[in-house]
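Q: Convert this sequence to structure tokens.
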Amino acid sequence: MINIYNIANIVFYALLGISFILLLPRIVMCFMGCGKAKQFKDAKKEHKYAILVPARNESKVIRQILDSIKNQTYNKDKLETFVIVESLDDPTCEICKEYENVQVFCRQHLENKGKGYALDECFSYILNNQKGMKQEDKFEAFFIMDADNVMAKDYIYEMNKVFDAGFDVGTGYRANKNFNDSWVSACSGLYFNFLSTFKNKPKAKLGLGVQVTGTGFYVSRKIIEQLDGWKFNTLTEDYEFSLCTVLHNYSSSYNEKAVFYDEQPSSLKVSWKQRVRWCKGFMQANKIFRKPLLKKRIDTSGKRKFDLIENGTSLAPLVFSLVSVALYAVVNLVLFIISVITHNPLWYYPFASFIGVLVGFYLLMVLYTAFIIVVERKRLGAKPLNSFVACLANPWFMILYAPIYFQALFTKNVEWTPIAHTSIIDVEAIGEEEKQVKI
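A:
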């Protein structure tokens, strides 16, 4: 048994070395995320934008997004908001009448369920209505927002810099509205903090394409016209769109100063359902784009090739590391059980290794979470106790992705289901809070 134990240790440490090499680019990007973000020059022009807000039964929170649009420092004559509903009896419609430059768009094809279909219908309506207009009167790009979002006062002003710089797609910093509601909302939001600061921020600085996440981004009119609408209808239409931007060489970037707020699920049950949908959508989108992206990786060279490889292998280092830890833990657990059964006096060797690798992995995840919270502390608005709880709970929150992924893998019909939004924040106050954050 001791020989098997020694061999397992040698293999494990070798795998740890490989894991470190694979994770090294990610580690470098994390440190880059601690530095200054990509800076954008002041825009030479105020461009004309449409803001699309899917808002089925969102009357409880719709005022927040509309108020935050009304309070933008950007020229209001350059903005038009389209609130997408499924019935004119929705109370959301009456609320929208109180605001200028806000149209209610009522869907007709309700047999097609999902945000992607709702956006496609609205895009078709807008493009058809603007066919006879002069080019300068048409919307130049479209913002995709959720009904529970709140924009900081200079969000559009900052995003206009990105569009004016020539990027087809742009996204901003996704802040958490309700970090302090529960450990679930805190951990759920930390993923988006990580994505903004430690992935999109360094990628933008390196001139690589960034990843959009469901809301808080714009897409140029050029793309919508080339695609003839919004043709992304998997359970994660945002990830599917991100893959499309990579495949078709659409340029994208990230502006850290463009801040918007988003609500996260407060209960584990709701978060679990949401993440099952994400995992299933991840599989669906990868199935669609796997072959064309693989072919493009082979045919492309230069910086774009690195972008394609990074996009296609972003999860591989983490998965490799997790599998290595899991296999080592399982081997030592089996050896421990065999030792106990056979009364081997060295039973404590595999037992200590089994406990040690699990505790070590957990503590590493705690430190990783603490690192994110420390770097993001000014924007989280987190109470000290909630930050401490999030550090301890986030490893478990992430580990739950394993059973969630397997549930998604073996569930044929995962449907898109709406999530109730109830979190309300002070729209007037957030602009003052942002002034206190140094970027």
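The chain has a mean pLDDT of 88.
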